[in-house]
From TrEMBL:
Biased composition, class Polar residues, residue ranges: 1-11
Name this protein carries in UniProt: ATP/maltotriose-dependent transcriptional regulator MalT
PANTHER family: TRANSCRIPTIONAL REGULATOR REDD-RELATED
The Bacterial transcriptional activator domain, residue ranges: 910-1052
KW ATP-binding (keyword) present: no
Region (Disordered): 1-20
UniProt keyword Mitochondrion present: no
Length: 1057
């Protein structure tokens, strides 16, 4: 078998089949009551629409989608979704709106499927300004699949940041987190009592269908069951049709009346997820489609129209027809099933094909699929699917096929019972007829089982036996054998040189025969091994190619893992800036895939890179974030120990010895509890640095020596060199210079290649004077001396940590301007109108700024959407809340005690708050004082114009009026301050500014004329009064108040005013 490389290039959106959103039926019964209930439920992340068959669940949700500001996605599940691999692929197709989207590249761990789905959610969210609303129809199909339910629960959590999941089905699957929220009322479940037709809706149905019926009689007869109502009005129903009679109704009133030519057609079509015109015309002729559509037009409540050329049968009708097909024509049923399975395998949907054969096909069909594609699924790690599939095969089937027998042993070895795997493998190996691939698979099963059981001597003997087998069969199997042998050499015998040879051979075989993703697994493994054994440049080369391959293949947790290892390889090679760039991508990849463990590791590694650059504050932030994730989201003692030790170094770099010592000791306790030799050595080295800084050179020497010797035993040369250099530093501090030279010699001995000296740069920066002394010692080798001399005299640009932005912290600083202009920056980046996506989203953010203590959703929608019907406000609020979070950052808005507010841990700077604070400060100051005047001036410098004129709502108008009044009062007060000091020119400038915004402010105009006169500008004052009088009469239709003319006369006469 040769596995083919899956391309990451996705065709354009290709919705249809199970991922198509149903079109509304031609004879649509308006249901505003029900649609309103669904829309009101939006906002908590999950909605349940749960009722028995025939309650119009799908139609109701499709109708609600027409009126919400969300990006709709839809998937209709069937029995194949029982397999988590198939469910993940179907969800991916739905999210991308592309039924040809490639399947998950790997499925070894549930995290691989999570990465695949998480990446799809991230990609779709990045491509649209609207939040996603994902409808999962027929969710009851997952009821008996623990792993699929776990995947669904994870998806709901991953989409909880503003998106919505609607679960539609006959029963709500058991999801503890969701059931708990249902019990508390946080999640709405719309059930049969809501979905049933009311009396008004029955009357509307009668009007739509044109039937002659008594609404009360129909309601009594059907209990409001929607399909019963529509069937009754179509003239098909027997008296008393109800949900309990639906099967009888299908048999006696639907299927019995289907013309014979359509029955044969529907038998075969019922096995398809959807029915397409092209398929019908090719298989049954041009007229067949017209006949089928004509029959269904009178019963459109039994199907969902997806387009003019495609529809989906009601799930119960589809199952009824399939069961009838299997019962009345078993051979025809299996032949049709064979066609469906062939279609799935042609599209490389192997997991879906296997699961369909398991549930609906024959054992022979399932065995055939496992024979052809079992090894491919093993390479991809689809062991959950395979375990269920092999459990469905009988003993006789397995006994007749040595290959299936061996593949079952392999599955047992991976996720079942290793002892059972050994038993099955032994049976096959002992069988005289077992040869070729079957025998190889049996040995691979033994290899895995022995490794799990820790029986290393037998494991090594088995690996040798596998090597000795003279076989040149299937290229994919040959490549895997080489890879598995390399894994043994790497992890058991520790023969790195032999492991490297085998991994390179595995890569060559896998790439030559396109065995994916085995080629990338081998390349990633080799890159990690090269890094661990001190060949950082080679590791960088190998991991760079592996990362490129994982990107091309599609999202899996392997990309994040590879990027983290690549970043650390750059770090070991001394390329600290490249390490930062790669690790930032690793963090982003982990977030996109929803893999918090990968995020934690990449964030901790990013802390190491910033530490190496001498950016201690940044390093501290990264280590603290990694520790937070470890504590709350992805428990991992190894990372916790390393991150806490790194945090100690970050504090030490900032001169906080007390905090550095606290965290160094805490890290040591965690490492000792885990018992990992590398972690213990690493933490000892960190504690040695703290002790040396505290003046305890003896303790530093002891700890650093223990660490260096441990790293030597583990053959981690760069860390051993760093350990011996730390020993020498401590000995030098203790005036034990001869011993320090001996330690330097050991350090130089550990440096086998020029690039290894880069790992010492942070230590050289720590004490340049010691580095100069060390460079002058004969113990320092040529490469060693070169790095010491260069780094001890140069202040590297890397080491100069940039000044942090004001208020730097976990969240970026948000600066909002709304006086005269509306602009928002996040971390110095301007938020564009395209990023806001709607003016209402921008207005919602400023509304939250104006209510820093929080505002309830009901208050917010009343202020923002006074014109919208109440039921539509909920979805509008949540879609714009999503846009605010997308434009700024995810945690910028939180919900607390039923109210929404800007995150108190965030940093929000608003010119309105600064303006009002300055005005308040002025009012508290002594009247007429300079302090008061300066505060007013500060406020007026901020007031560049009216508040947010683009917002036309009443709340914004109220804020605008309040600030306008405060600004004018401040100008008037400032004008009075200047006039009192005979600075009439400045007073005039203040009043002119008032009049620019309020032309008919009589008090400002009067005082302006008076101050100009007192400034010796009598002519200008008289001219201003004349112009103002003319404007006043033109605009207001009445003469200027008499006091202005009295002032004019006084100024003209030279009387003091």
């Amino acid at each position: 078998m040769t596995a083919t490389l899956t391309t990451s290039t996705r065709p354009r959106a290709n919705p249809g089949g199970r991922i198509a959103v149903p079109r509304l039926p031609r004879r649509l019964v308006p249901r505003p009551r029900l649609v309103g209930r669904i829309q009101e439920a939006i906002g908590n992340g999950v909605i349940g629409v749960i009722a028995p068959a025939g309650y119009g669940k799908s139609t109701a949700v499709a109708l609600a989608l027409e009126e919400v500001d969300y990006e709709p996605r839809w998937v209709s599940l069937d029995s194949t979704a029982h397999a988590p691999e198939a469910l993940a692929h179907q969800l991916g197709c739905a999210l991308y709106r592309n039924r040809l989207a490639p399947p998950p590249p790997t499925a070894l761990r549930l995290s691989d499927l999570q990465a695949y789905i998480g990446a799809a959610v991230h990609d779709v969210a990045a491509s649209t300004p609207r939040p996603i609303l994902l409808v999962i129809d027929n969710v009851h199909e997952l009821a008996d699949s623990h792993e699929s339910l776990h995947l669904l629960g994870w998806l709901i959590e991953a989409m909880s940041d503003g998106h919505e999941v609607v679960l539609v089905g006959r029963e709500l699957p058991f999801l503890p987190s969701i059931n708990e929220r249902v019990a508390t009322g946080e999640v709405t479940v719309i059930d049969a009592t809501v979905l049933a037709f009311s009396a008004d809706e029955v009357r509307a149905a009668i009007d739509v269908t044109g039937a002659r019926a008594d609404p009360r009689h129909v309601l009594e007869q059907t209990g409001g069951w929607p399909v019963g109502v529509m069937a009754t009005l179509a003239g098909d129903a027997v008296p008393g049709v109800s949900p309990a009679d639906f099967h009888r109704y299908l048999a006696s009133e639907v299927w019995s009346r289907v013309p014979a030519n359509l029955r044969q057609m529907l038998h075969r079509l019922a096995l398809q997820p959807s029915i397409e015109r092209s398929f019908v015309e090719i298989e049954f002729g041009l007229r067949a489609w017209r006949d089928l559509v004509a029959w269904l037009n009178r019963r459109d409540f039994l199907c969902e129209h997806l387009s003019a050329r495609e529809f989906r049968l009601n799930p119960l009708l589809r199952q009824f027809i399939a069961d009838d097909f299997a019962a009345t024509d078993p051979e025809g049923f299996q032949s049709a099933m064979e066609g469906v399975l062939s279609s799935l395998t042609r599209m490389a949907r192997y997991a879906e094909a296997v699961e369909m054969a398991r549930v609906q096909g024959t054992e022979l069909q399932l065995a055939d699929l496992l024979t052809r594609y079992g090894h491919h699924l093993i390479i991809r790690g689809s062991f959950s699917l395979l375990k269920e599939a092999f459990a469905s095969l009988g003993h006789a089937t397995l006994e007749r096929s040595p290959l299936l027998h061996a593949l079952k042993a392999r599955v047992e070895a991976h996720i079942g019972d290793p002892d059972e795997a050994l038993r099955l493998a032994a049976q096959l190996i002992a069988a005289p007829g077992a040869c070729g691939p079957a025998r190889i698979h049996a040995h691979l099963a033994r290899l895995r089982a022995l490794r799990l059981l820790g029986r290393h001597e037998e494991l090594l003997a088995e690996a040798e036996h596998l090597r000795a087998i003279d076989w040149s069969g299937d290229a994919a199997l040959r490549a895997e054998v080489v890879f598995q042998r390399a894994e043994i050499e790497l992890s058991v015998t520790r023969n790195f040189q032999r492991a490297e040879e085998l991994l390179r051979l595995a890569i060559d075989e896998a790439e030559r025969h396109q065995v994916s993703p085995l080629d990338l697994l081998a390349r990633s493994t080799l890159g990690q091994a090269l890094a661990m054994h001190g060949d950082a440049p080679a590791a960088v080369t190998m991991l760079t190619r592996a990362a490129q391959g994982w990107r091309a293949l599609g999202r899996s947790s392997n990309l994040g893992w590879t990027l983290n290892n690549l970043g650390m390889a750059h770090l070991d090679a001394g390329d600290f800036r490249s390490a930062v760039a790669v690790l930032e991508e690793a963090v982003a990849e982990g977030i996109a895939c929803g893999n918090r463990r990968n995020v934690a590791y990449a964030t901790g590694s990013l802390g190491d890179a910033e530490l190496a650059l001498g950016h201690f504050r940044k390093a501290q932030e990264h280590f603290e974030e990694a520790i937070r994730i470890c504590a709350n989201e992805a428990l991992d003692e190894t990372l916790a120990a390393l991150a806490i030790a790194g945090l100690s170094a970050a504090y030490l770099g900032q001169g906080d010895l007390q905090q550095a010592d606290f965290f160094a000791r805490r890290a040591m306790l965690v490492a000792l509890a885990s018992g990992n030799p590398y972690e213990i050595a690493y933490c000892r080295l960190r504690q040695a640095a703290v002790d040396l800084a505290a003046g305890n050179a003896a303790s530093a020497v002891s700890l650093a020596r223990e660490a260096a010797e441990a790293f030597e035993q583990m053959d981690v040369a760069p860390m051993a060199a760093a350990g011996w250099y730390r020993v020498a530093m401590a000995q030098f501090r203790a005036n034990r210079r001869a011993e320090a030279q001996d330690s330097l010699a050991k350090c130089a001995e550990a440096i086998r290649q020029p690039w290894m000296t880069q790992s010492l740069i942070p230590l050289v920066r720590e004490n340049p004077m010691f580095a100069q002394w060390a460079a002058s010692r004969p113990a320092a080798g040529r490469w060693f001396r070169d790095i010491l001399e260069r780094q001890s005299f140069l202040v590297s640009g890397d080491a100069a940590e940039p000044e942090p932005e004001p208020g730097t912290g976990r969240f970026p600083r948000v600066v909002a301007r709304s006086l005269g202009r509306v602009a928002v920056t996040v971390g110095g980046r301007q938020v564009s109108d395209e990023q806001w996506a709607s003016i209402r989203a921008k207005e919602l953010f400023f509304l939250l700024l104006a209510h820093r203590d929080g505002i309830r959703k009901e208050q917010a929608v009343e202020m923002l959407y006074p014109e919208l019907p109440r039921e539509k406000c909920n979805s509008a609020f949540h879609s714009n809340l999503y846009r605010v979070r997308r434009a700024l950052y995810q945690d910028c808005v939180i919900k607390q005690d039923g109210a929404y507010l800007l995150n108190p841990e965030g940093q929000f700077e608003w010119d309105v708050e600064k303006f009002e604070a300055a005005v308040e400060r002025a009012h508290r100051a002594q009247p007429g004082s300079k302090e008061r005047a300066l505060a007013f001036q500060e406020a007026l410098e901020l007031y560049e114009g009216p508040f947010a004129e683009v917002f036309e709502s009443e709340w914004a108008a109220g804020v605008r009026a309040r600030l306008h009044e405060a600004a004018h009062a401040s100008l008037a007060a400032l004008a009075g301050y200047f006039a009192a000091r005979n600075d009439f020119e400045s007073a005039v400038l203040c009043l002119e500014r008032i009049l620019r915004n309020d032309r008919f402010n009589e008090e400002a105009a009067y005082e302006l004329a008076r101050y100009r006169s007192r400034a010796g500008q009598a002519v200008q004052a008289l001219h201003f009064i004349d112009q103002y009088a003319e404007l006043y009469e033109q605009e207001l239709g009445e003469p200027l108040p008499e006091r202005f003319f009295e002032l004019r006369a006084a100024i003209a006469a030279g009387v003091a005013v």
